[in-house]
Write a structure and sequence with these properties.
Number of helices: 11
Structural class: mainly alpha
Helix content: 55-70%
Shape: flat
Strand content: under 5%
Number of strands: 0
Length: 179
């Protein structure tokens, strides 16, 4: 098939187009994306970003919020400017809610796959603590080495300690019933 006419030619640069102005105007129109729900609800679109953050007691620039220790050594305290520029916090509930949320303990959302749990339980049930036997088992599809199997069992122990103890106790009970 023949090529489209003019496609192989180099495109010319347009010197008359001011790309900086286009970029700046697009940036000016964009609103800040606010991830925190507390800040989003307290946000006033009529105010600037700096005013909104000051009303909530948050810092716009972390470098200005926390003074650098080197400036104190030069003899400039910075206390004069900070006392003049101090603003009252109009919306302290935002800061309080954020501090409360940060103080909550983190919920563990890590889980193991059902396949890995079944694999580990099968290995323990049939071989006990003999990792070399586990490595030779026909259900060892991924050809894990004894150390890899031991590591998987330890991961299972750490994720589900109560379930592991109950499982081992049930295995001991079965052995006693058989004897």
């Amino acid at each position: 098939m023949p090529k489209a006419k003019g496609k192989s030619r180099r495109q010319k640069f347009s010197y008359n187009l001011n790309r900086k102005r286009l970029y700046r105007s697009a940036r000016r129109r964009a609103r800040p994306r606010i991830e925190c729900a507390h800040v989003r609800h307290a946000w006033d679109p009529a105010k600037s970003v700096a005013q909104n953050l000051a009303d909530m007691g948050l810092a716009e620039d972390p470098n200005k919020a926390v003074p650098i220790a080197g400036k104190a050594l030069l003899g400039d305290d910075g206390s004069d400017g900070q006392e003049k520029g101090k603003k009252t916090v109009i919306k302290p509930y935002v800061l309080n809610e954020m501090e409360y949320e940060a103080s909550l303990p983190e919920k563990k959302s890590n889980t193991l796959s059902r396949d890995l749990i079944d694999y580990v339980r099968y290995m323990i049930q049939n071989h006990g603590e003999n990792y070399k036997e586990m490595a030779r088992d026909e259900k060892n599809y991924y050809q894990d080495t004894p150390k890899q199997i031991k590591r998987k069992i330890n991961v299972y122990k750490n994720f589900y300690p109560e379930e592991y103890k109950a499982f081992v106790a049930s295995l001991k009970q079965e052995k006693m019933d058989v004897q």
